[in-house]
UniProtKB/TrEMBL annotation:
Entry protein name: BRISC and BRCA1-A complex member 2
GO cellular component, one term: BRISC complex
Pfam family, one: BRE
PANTHER family from the UniProt entry: BRISC AND BRCA1-A COMPLEX MEMBER 2
Source organism: Larinioides sclopetarius
Family: Belongs to the BABAM2 family.
Length: 382
């Protein structure tokens, strides 16, 4: 086992070296590479043949290593098929020597059919369920941690599929809980987020217990990159220390409340962006070159003051409406070092408390005043 840290991507294994009856199982596994809660994918490594006389063109590798993200760590398992007996089910050897695959209890293994290409995927999922049961049995040896685990089921909508547990053999190594937060705040977020999200786009909480005789823990929140950007959060986010001192269930409830608040704020910001665009596009409807129809982050207009034409780009900051939209004036006549002459302005009359109509009026007034200065500066490049 090793910690599941962010690592450079390994080169994908060349599955063409696998024996044909093995290859089709691996193809399905790699096509659906998520087993368990972690957002990371299963990896297939080190394909090898049973016999040393290996030539690539023979494509007879029948054993390989699988790396499975589990509870914030990486569990390794050697999968051994038989090239001489394609109809035989594979054997499994885990890196965790305390765990032996209960072959006679794995239903998908007992009913193995080499012609069903999803067989290996189903077997691995079932094996990992037995592995989790083994970890829960190990947890029973520690009263405080077992109590924390059982208390989680008091949370609304929480069930066994929402947690992975790892109890390392070394007593000095922290016990890990990887928890899928049961509250679903996605319905609060904008429509585009719901359309793009999938069933795996949920927050995860990794909880580490350094002392097995205490319920004191460290927490780390995992969000998808898309959710981080939308909520304005990153993986260093922590609740206040006084919350950390509570039971884990209380921490999770407080964290869910915080996520819900962040989601409501994100939805409110998005609605304000949409209103801003509606107001400005309605006013400048004949001048629109392009605009961001999904995130409402920027629009480009071509405007005229007397006989002077110019391009105006309006960029809304991530913290809009608190942050002031940037106005970028671009020349269509002159360039500097190959780029159009441009001036960005963000210190003009603006307040997040104004109505959209007042924001539009004040912005238009500023544009009409500032364009005279921009025209003079643009003329200096003649």
């Amino acid at each position: 086992m090793e910690e599941d840290k962010e690592k450079p991507k390994r080169e994908k294994v060349d599955i063409s070296v696998l024996a044909p009856h093995v290859r089709k199982h691996v193809e399905v596994l790699l096509d659906q590479p998520i087993i368990g809660l972690c957002h990371r994918e299963v990896e297939v490594l080190n394909p090898k043949p049973s016999f040393p006389s290996y030539e690539k063109e023979n494509s007879n590798c029948d054993r390989f290593q699988i790396v499975i993200p589990y509870a914030g760590m990486r569990i390794e398992c050697m999968v051994v098929f038989q090239s001489s007996g394609p109809e035989c089910p594979p054997d499994f050897v885990f890196s965790d020597s305390r765990f032996f695959v209960p072959i006679d209890q794995i239903e998908t293994l007992c009913s193995w059919d080499v012609h069903k290409s999803d067989g290996l995927l189903k077997v691995m999922k079932e094996i990992m369920q037995f592995y989790k049961k083994k970890q829960i049995q190990e947890l029973d040896r520690y009263e405080h941690l077992s109590f924390e685990y059982l208390c989680l089921f008091q949370l609304q909508n929480f069930n066994e599929d929402d947690i992975e547990i790892l109890v390392p053999s070394d007593p000095e190594t922290p016990v890990l809980f990887l928890i899928r937060l049961p509250a679903d705040f996605r319905h609060i977020l904008p429509d585009f987020y719901q359309e793009e999200s999938d069933l795996r786009d949920f927050p995860l909480l990794l909880v580490s217990f350094p002392n097995r005789d205490s319920s004191r823990s460290c927490q780390r929140l995992y969000l998808t990159k898309k959710t981080q950007l939308l909520l304005g959060m990153d993986e260093s986010f922590q609740l206040p220390d006084e919350v950390n001192d509570n039971y884990l269930t209380r921490y999770i409830i407080a964290l869910e409340d915080e996520l819900k608040t962040k989601a409501e704020m994100a939805a409110s910001r998005y609605e304000r962006r949409r209103m801003y665009f509606t107001q400005f596009l309605s006013h400048f409807y004949r001048c629109v070159v392009e605009y961001d129809v999904l995130y409402f982050s920027s629009m480009t207009l071509i405007l005229r003051e007397d006989d002077f034409h110019f391009i105006l780009e309006i960029n809304l900051p991530d913290d809009f409406p608190m942050g002031t939209p940037a106005l970028v004036f671009r020349s269509i006549y002159h360039s500097f070092m190959g780029d159009p002459v441009a001036v960005a302005v963000d210190n003009y009359p603006y307040s997040p408390t104004w109505s959209m109509q007042k924001i539009l009026d004040e912005t238009v007034k500023f544009i009409e005043e500032y364009v005279h200065l921009f025209r003079q500066d643009d003329g200096s490049y003649c």
